[in-house]
Amino acid sequence: MDIKKSGMIAVVGRPNVGKSTLSNTLAGEKVAIVTNKPQTTRNRICAVCNRGETQFVIVDTPGFHLPRSKLGEYMVKVASESVSGVDAAVLMVEPIARVGTPEQKLIERLDALHVPTVLAVNKTDALERRETLLEVIGAYSQAFAFAAYVPISAKTGDGTDALLDELEKFVPEGHMLFPEGMSSDQPDRHLTAEIIREKALLCLDREVPHGLAIEIERFLERDNGIVEVGAVIYCEKESHKGIIIGKNGASLKKIGELARQELESFFGAKVFLETWVKVRPGWRDSAPGLRNFGFK
Ligand code: GDP
Ligand code: MG
Questions:
Q1: Is the CB of 41 under 6 A from ligand 1?
Q2: Pocket test for ligand 1, best of 16, 65, 136, 195 (most atoms within 8 A of CB)
């Protein structure tokens, strides 16, 4: 099918509401990492979804929150910027019948930028009372004149077709923004780093919260098809380094093993993964430090 319409859609909402899950569901493969910890999506990530004659380019944004370190400020900036210049936005909310402070702030921003916005009430699969939905929609319709109100489950895909139907109304005629077969504009290196970081967060639980960055030092495909990756896990404290490595290296081994398995299924190739742990104190608060890790 020829693509005749193409548009950019920003998905905004508080951390953990399910933005990355929606991007993944729409793209049909993993492009943004999903964990149960807030703020795992640091960069602006596009998922591409072709449906009929329309190409939707989904911009997944970091959660809207109050700045603490420079990394926090950066994330708020990206969240605000990703809303300008898009054709439409989705404000994704939990099925709670009260407009929270982050939602209120996002609504003000969307209103000021005149972005047509669809309200997506997520996690309907976990809803106990259907009536709650009406209450949620009632509360939000008083706060802002949304273009539409769509209950969805980003996890199961329920309602996502109806959501695209609503968004399609704002997608202009135009060329494809991304070529066929491409579902993400993030280079392989970046995805690799995100996958390793996701596994580290999973394995380390709350012990080393957000002071982790992954740098891909080596990324190459050998002649025999094996993908070779060398990655450095940076942490902020010497004590964190010990936790990441674990007793007899057990923790780092587990992180590497989980990451390798996922990378192999993602690239459809055997992956040779080497990981190191290094300490770089205060990387989150230094602007040059941030640039080194790909935060522009
Ligand atoms: P983000 O921070 O907004 O990008 O949120 P994520 O996509 O990373 O999801 C945060 C958590 O919510 C994860 O544990 C997801 O599995 C969960 N989640 C996301 N969408 C749904 C949904 O539709 N239903 C349920 N039950 N859980 C969901
Ligand atoms: Mg996310």
A1: yes
A2: 16
